[in-house]
Design a protein that fits this description.
Helix content: 55-70%
Number of domains: 1
CATH superfamily: Hypothetical protein af1432
Structural class: mainly alpha
Oligomer: single chain
Largest sheet: 2 strands, antiparallel
Bound molecules: fe (ii) ion
CATH topology: Hypothetical protein af1432
Number of strands: 2
Order of helices and strands: HEEHHHHHHHHHHH
Strand order of the largest sheet: 1-2
Number of helices: 12
Radius of gyration: 16 Å
Length: about 190
């Protein structure tokens, strides 16, 4: 079983459940986020991060919308840990930080809160609400803050029931590129 087989099984085989309160499913949400990243001219690592940012929602057994039951599934951590077995930090860390980036954007851009969907507002409360001043300063210093913030903007925009995207199989080309880079980096590590 390769990582591409695993991802096809998760996304094409099982990601047909709803995405919280949005009128798209997990697969459509993933494809829309990856499409926005690709259109922005991002590197393959961020396109893959956008594609797989919510994999943590699909590897737990808390149901489709745990936030509606008042549960924070910590999907950003679960997803990052799962991805770390296969991908470099440039993929893993923006995924780990995409929820923190929402809390960050709500703190530094008052207008950002107004763009959030109902399910994002509900989960924001469970995730700790907007960052404090100290948390904002800490986030600004993180190496992957910029990628995570970009990813978070794609995330919020990737809930359009009318959007058209390429297939999951199309985006697997970027998975292959990132895996290749990770394998080369591992081979030359002293
Ligand atoms: Fe998420
Ligand atoms: Fe998402």
């Amino acid at each position: 079983m390769t990582i591409s087989d695993d991802l096809l099984d998760i996304y094409v085989g099982r990601a047909t459940g709803g995405y919280g309160l949005a009128s798209v499913n997990q697969l459509q949400h993933a494809l829309q986020a990856a499409t926005l990243s690709e259109k922005a001219g991002d590197p393959p690592s961020l396109i893959v991060a956008a594609l797989l940012h919510d994999v943590g929602h699909m590897i737990h057994d808390l149901g489709e919308n745990p936030a509606s039951a008042g549960i924070d599934d910590r999907h950003e951590d679960a997803g990052a840990e799962w991805l770390a077995a296969w991908f470099p930090p440039a993929v893993v860390e923006p995924v780990r930080l995409h929820v923190a980036a929402k809390r960050y954007l709500c703190a530094v851009e008052p207008s950002y809160f107004g763009t959030l969907s109902r399910d994002s507002i509900r989960s924001l409360a469970l995730q700790g609400g907007p960052m404090s001043t100290d948390e904002v300063a800490g986030f600004d210093r993180l190496e992957w803050a910029e990628g995570a913030t970009k990813l978070r903007r794609y995330d919020e925009a990737a809930k359009d029931p009318a959007a058209r995207t390429r297939s999951f199989e199309y985006f697997l080309r970027y998975v292959g590129t990132c895996r290749g880079q990770a394998l080369v980096a591992a081979a030359i590590r002293p």
